[in-house]
TrEMBL record:
Descriptive protein name: Putative peptidyl-prolyl cis-trans isomerase
SUPFAM superfamilies: Cyclophilin-like
InterPro entries according to UniProt: Cyclophilin-like_dom_sf, Cyclophilin-type_PPIase_dom, Cyclophilin_A-like
Gene3D superfamilies given in the database record: Cyclophilin-like
The organism's taxonomic lineage, starting at the top: Bacteria, Bacillati, Actinomycetota, Actinomycetes, Propionibacteriales
Taxonomic source organism: Nocardioides dokdonensis FR1436
Pfam families registered for this protein in UniProt: Pro_isomerase
Length: 241
C-alpha cells in the first residue's frame, strides 16, 4: 500500500505503486484515480495533509476488502514491545531487520501477526524503483500491487520521518490510515515526504543484497526505472525472533 506514488515525476508512478501497496485491498482505494496515477508528494497526504499517531494501546485495525490470504486481525492491544528481531528469508539471501515496537506498536503488531500466520511466505516483491526513489516493495501475495490482508492499519507518524538506506516502511494509498501488508525497503537515500510509517531498519548486509539485486534494474512496466525487479526477490518466510 505504499502504493501510491512517491516522488519525482518519473518516480511518481513508482511511488504510486508504493501507494497502491499501501492500501492493500483491491477495492476502494486501489480503484481510485489517486492510486492508479502518479501524483506529487504534496497531494499524497489526502484531504488534510495531517497525520496523528495512534493512541497508546489503541490499534484500530479496520476490516477493508477481501484478504489475499485468510488471516486473523492482529490484537487491538499491542503484544509487542521494544526491539523485535525478524529475518526475511529470500531468494537473494536472509535480510535481517529490527522492528521498532516502541515507536510503532500497531504497525509492528500487524507485521508480526502476519508473519506468524505465514502471510508473507512464498510471496514475490513486486516493485522496484531505481530513479528518483530507491525502494523495493513487497508484502502483496498477489504480486500485483493491489493485494492486502483485508484490513487497514493506523498511521504512526511523527512528521519527522526520513528514508535513508536501510529504512523499512509501510506502503499506503494517498489517504491516512490506509496501510495494510505492503512494505518497502529503502536501499539508497530516498527523498519522500514524512507520510510513510517507518517501523524498522534492515541491516547493512541486507541493504547490500537488495542494492545488488536492484543493480539489474526493473522491467520498466510502470515507467522508466519502475516495475518488477529483473532479479526476482521472493520471500520464502519471515521469522520473528
Amino acid at each position: 500500500m505504499l502504493t501510491r506514488s512517491l516522488a519525482t515525476a518519473a518516480v511518481l508512478a513508482c511511488v504510486g505503486a508504493l501507494a497502491a501497496c499501501g492500501s492493500e485491498n483491491d477495492t476502494a482505494a486501489d480503484a481510485s484515480p489517486a492510486s492508479e496515477s502518479p501524483q506529487s508528494p504534496e497531494s499524497e497526504s489526502g484531504d488534510s495533509g495531517e497525520f496523528t499517531p495512534a493512541a497508546d494501546g489503541e490499534c484500530a485495525y479496520v476490516e477493508d476488502g477481501n484478504p489475499s490470504k485468510d488471516v486473523d486481525l492482529p490484537p487491538a492491544d499491542p503484544t509487542v514491545e521494544g526491539d523485535v528481531e525478524v529475518t526475511l528469508s529470500t531468494s537473494i539471501g536472509d535480510l535481517d531487520a529490527t522492528l521498532d515496537a516502541a515507536a510503532t506498536p500497531c504497525t509492528v503488531g500487524s507485521f508480526v501477526s502476519l508473519a506468524e500466520q505465514s502471510y508473507f511466505d512464498a510471496t514475490t516483491c513486486h516493485r522496484l524503483t531505481t530513479e528518483g526513489i530507491f525502494v523495493l516493495q513487497c508484502g502483496d501475495p498477489t504480486a500485483t500491487g493491489t493485494g492486502g490482508p483485508g484490513y487497514t492499519i493506523p498511521d504512526e507518524l511523527s512528521g519527522e520521518e526520513t528514508y535513508p538506506a536501510g529504512t523499512l516502511a509501510m506502503a499506503k494509498t494517498p489517504y491516512p490510515d490506509s496501510g495494510g501488508s505492503q512494505f518497502f525497503i529503502v536501499y539508497d537515500e530516498t527523498p519522500l515526504p514524512p507520510q510513510y510509517t517507518v517501523f524498522g531498519t534492515v541491516d547493512a548486509d541486507g541493504v547490500k543484497a537488495v542494492a545488488e539485486a536492484a543493480s539489474a534494474g526493473a522491467d520498466d512496466s510502470n515507467g522508466p526505472g519502475d516495475g518488477a525487479p529483473r532479479t526476482a526477490v521472493d520471500i520464502e518466510a519471515v521469522t520473528v525472533g
